[in-house]
Amino acid sequence: MPSRATVLDIGCGTGQPIAHHLTEQGCIVTGVDSSPEMIAMAKDRQPAGDWLIADMRTLSLSRTFDGLLAWDSFFHLGYDDQRRMFAVFRRHANAGAALMFTSGPSYGEAIGRLEGEPLFHASLDGAEYRTLLDAHGFAVVAHAVEDPECGGHTIWLARLR
């Protein structure tokens, strides 16, 4: 991304640690999350950011960004909602924009736990993610499955062609 890149953090939560890191690197961050409580915490922790309460599935900000990030957020959506998100990504991407998101390692659903509460996770398979990226103008730059260097996350990095 260019210096002073604009980044859309989709499902930003509290803005920690990702948005904080991006801001330290000189990025101009806009974070969206459906939780008013999470957005309030993000505003307190990162006052320089632009923090918005919004549902990622219907996001329409009428502006584009140099980078899009859906870290530990996108995979809380069901299969069909994930498929529809690729149009949302495209709509918010500048020419040449980077897109990074996390997914599961393979097709399936799981229920995890966060602070004792059940938490839904779903993932398409890798071939379908590749097809969706390609259909929306993104080329895969890198893909790591359960990367041990990154806490076991499955990570996708793509660039808008």
Automatic annotation (TrEMBL):
Transmembrane segments: none
Domain Methyltransferase: 7-94
Signal peptide boundaries: none
A Pfam family it matches: Methyltransf_25
SUPFAM superfamilies named among the record's database cross-references: S-adenosyl-L-methionine-dependent methyltransferases (SSF53335)
Gene3D superfamilies per the UniProt record, alphabetical: Vaccinia Virus protein VP39
Record's keyword terms, sorted: Methyltransferase, Transferase
Listed GO biological process terms: methylation
Molecular function in Gene Ontology: methyltransferase activity
Protein name: Methyltransferase
The organism's taxonomic lineage, starting at the top: Bacteria, Pseudomonadati, Pseudomonadota, Alphaproteobacteria, Hyphomicrobiales
